[in-house]
Write a structure and sequence with these properties.
This is Phosphoribosyltransferase. With 427 residues, this protein is an alpha/beta fold. It is built from 10 helices and 16 strands. The protein has a 5-stranded parallel β-sheet with strand order 4-3-7-8-9, with helices on both faces. Strands 10-16-15-11-12 form a 5-stranded parallel β-sheet, covered by helices on one side. Strand 11, helix 9 and strand 12 form a beta-alpha-beta unit. The longest helix is centred in the last third of the chain and has 19 residues.
């Protein structure tokens, strides 16, 4: 558990499998998504080997078995019995939503919502996450038909507390892409009987059915408030970077979206929609990138970090970079840091996002001296000045080397100084 710096909701469940606030085995996070996919397959009465569910459960409980369980599930490439559109919720569920979708070989499409406003593209779904620090959600699809034709919509979130966010998107979707059936998949479901009644009311109002599937279901009671806590102002130690910072561009391996010409987004991240054929192209690119980056590791303990909503592709690359690799992501969520044994977020630092200086991001739970190598994955290039706040944090972590891995084409010349050293992969 952790305390949010948020008047709307004072608490936060810090997941041991999500790969957001604390470092995890990347296969644990991928397996959590695949496990939700198994629950969906079971609910839709699709075919699958029954031993996969107990294997998945054991892999989630024991991270050392996560890789084997995940690969066993993925070897079957489950086939959906009906056409499905999968939607992952930004920011935290973009990766597990993608992992759910990728568990199925055919019959579905995937898109994730975003908090980012993308100029030159119209959002086809708009809804609010009322308790969040960043309320508005948008959804940009290359082809809106991907939401028109499927019979079922599957919404994927990391946690359902009241369910209001899911109800908000369903209400908006029903006016644009009406369906009869919705499934909501989540790692955690904490809805009260009163919350569940709101789902029944919307079903009757819209003439639809809503099914909720989760790995954990229960009830919580919250007392007190995080407002009584005083946010700590983190003080960075003197930079103790022992090795160089490498800026590595791997844009040649990935396709880019046409919406932003100078610093484009990736085409196959899920932000603009994804089909099975496009997933195969992305899988090949991910394996190529992981193979090359693996060769640049110099230590036994490596941390790979995704940035914001850009989680799934970095997570997949991290999973293929060898033993001793952990994964997590930066986040927009402001959280109280308290360095005690039974508290989930012990250390954290805010910084201005290099891609949008008006947005504050946070990096949590990366203690000094924990890792040899660190790989930070950025979907889009940023200018050197905007990178400084984040680089200053990374330079205090006692790392032998830092790799900034950038997926958009290079337009900036990174100048060397006493702490920077420019590195490029062999083409």
């Amino acid at each position: 558990m952790a305390a949010r710096i948020n008047k709307k909701r004072s608490f936060l469940f810090v997941s041991k499998v999500l790969g957001k606030h604390i470092p995890v085995n990347p296969y644990s996070s991928l397996l959590s998504g695949a496990s939700l996919a198994l629950l969906l397959q079971q609910a839709l009465k699709g075919t699958m080997p029954q031993q996969l569910i107990p294997q998945a459960i054991q892999g989630i409980i024991d991270p050392s078995q996560a890789e084997a369980a995940y690969k066993e599930i993925m070897s079957y490439r489950l086939s959906l019995p009906q056409s499905v559109a999968f939607i992952g919720f930004a920011e935290t569920a973009t990766a597990i939503g993608h992992a759910v979708y990728e568990t199925f070989g055919q019959g579905g499409s995937y898109i994730h919502t975003t908090r980012e406003v993308i100029e030159g593209s119209a959002s086809i779904i708009n809804f609010s996450e009322e308790h969040s620090h960043a309320v508005a959600h948008y959804c940009y699809a290359n082809d809106p038909e991907m939401l028109t034709h499927p019979e079922i919509v599957v919404l994927v979130d990391d946690e359902i507390t009241t369910g209001k966010t899911s109800l908000n998107i369903i209400r908006d979707m029903q006016g644009k892409f009406p369906k009869k059936t919705y499934y909501i998949l989540a790692l955690l479901d904490w809805r009260t009987p009163e919350d569940q009644q709101q789902f029944l009311k919307l079903e009757l109002e819209l003439g639809i059915s809503i099914h909720v599937l989760s790995l954990v279901k229960g009830e919580v009671k919250v007392t007190g408030s995080s407002e009584s806590l005083t946010p700590q102002v983190p003080v960075l130690p003197i930079p103790n970077q022992m090795g160089p910072i490498h800026f590595t561009y791997i844009d040649h391996l990935f396709a880019h979206a046409p919406y932003v010409s100078q610093h484009p987004y990736l085409q196959h991240s899920g932000r603009f929609g994804l089909t099975p054929d496009e997933s195969e192209q992305s899988d090949h690119s991910i394996s190529q990138a992981a193979k090359q980056l693996k060769l640049t590791r110099i230590g036994k303990k490596t941390l790979c970090i995704g940035t914001g909503e850009f989680m799934y592709i970095p997570m997949r690359i991290a999973a293929e970079m060898g033993e001793g690799v952990s994964y997590q992501s930066t986040t927009r969520s402001p959280i109280h840091t308290i360095d005690t044994e039974d508290y989930a977020v012990k250390v954290g630092y805010p910084y201005s996002s290099p891609e949008d200086p008006d947005v504050t991001h946070f990096l949590y739970n990366v203690p000094v001296g924990e890792y040899d190598d660190l790989y930070l994955f950025m979907e889009r290039e940023a200018d050197p000045a905007s990178m400084q706040p984040l680089l200053q944090i990374l330079q205090t972590r006692g790392l032998k080397q830092i790799h900034i891995v950038i997926f958009s084409p290079q337009t900036v010349e990174w100048k060397e100084n006493e702490t920077w050293k420019i590195g490029e992969l062999d083409q």
